Amino acid sequence: MSSQTPIIHPLFHASTSTYQYLVADPTTLSAAIIDPVLDYDPSTNTVSTTSADAILDIVHNNKYTVTHLLETHAHADHLTAAYYLKTQLSNSPSPPRQICIGKRITTIQQRFAEKYGVDKKEWENVFDVLWEDGQEFNVGELKGKVIWLPGHTEDSCGYLFGENIFTGDSIFNPDVGSARCDFPGGDAEKLFQTSQTLLSFPENYKIYTGHDYPPGGNSGRTEPLPYTTVSEQQQQNKHLKAGTQKQDFVKWRTERDGMLGEPRLLHQALQVNIRGGRMPGDGFLKVPVKGLKL
């Protein structure tokens, strides 16, 4: 097996429809974890680590050494487990684990820290690495590359390992289509350009999505699917397949986003994720109240 052909473990988090990935170098058994999830129950405001602990089980069972915890963006629909995993992995001998994200995260942190009243000391320098666009790095002998993928959010990026692209929320499986662009800094035109970037890779490359929402019904697909090929996306993506005109996509995406409600865990997720996965120092998360004001 070539050192450029990674071992990939997809893990689906059903309650948030999120895909998490463990990517390992078969030669050195060094590994990276992409977009890990903390379990959060909004009915009891309880955080737990069942999903993250399942990742740790895979790490330990396969004797992997985790060197990188990779985030594709500041998620608005789940809480990141990156910091929890870093603390749990710090007890075993290995190089330091680094929590990594694209450099534009600082803009996102400043915006939402102001919105939620998060003190600067709780979010500044919480990430170990802020990637430059196109930056290359190594996980053991496995070469990785950062790809800026704006549109869903301005800080969105993906990771290329060999012939595998981990796209975050920049594109979804063909029968799901595309992600919303109505968050601050989101942009439907930029998302269209991002789709063209992704669909310009060789047809056999695999696109691993950050979420999946199996449509069921007449589609016949009821189980989550971690990836499709570039060719399948080109031919079948219901929003972005080859031949789609930018103006048509932008018009449809903008109108569609105008009808969407906010993600269920939006406020909790953003307050934790701009802290790099740390809980607030006072133990409280703020949720804005809408409607009647007395």
Automatic annotation (TrEMBL):
Keywords: Hydrolase. InterPro entries: Metallo-B-lactamas (IPR001279), Mito_Persulfide_Diox (IPR051682), POD-like_MBL-fold (IPR044528), RibonucZ/Hydroxyglut_hydro (IPR036866). Pfam families: Lactamase_B. It comes from the Eukaryota. The keyword Hydrolase applies. The keyword Hydrolase applies. GO terms for molecular function: hydrolase activity; sulfur dioxygenase activity. One of its GO terms (biological process) is hydrogen sulfide metabolic process. Residues 17-211 form the Metallo-beta-lactamase domain. PANTHER family: METALLO-BETA-LACTAMASE SUPERFAMILY PROTEIN, PERSULFIDE DIOXYGENASE ETHE1. This is Zn-dependent hydrolase. It comes from Podospora fimiseda.
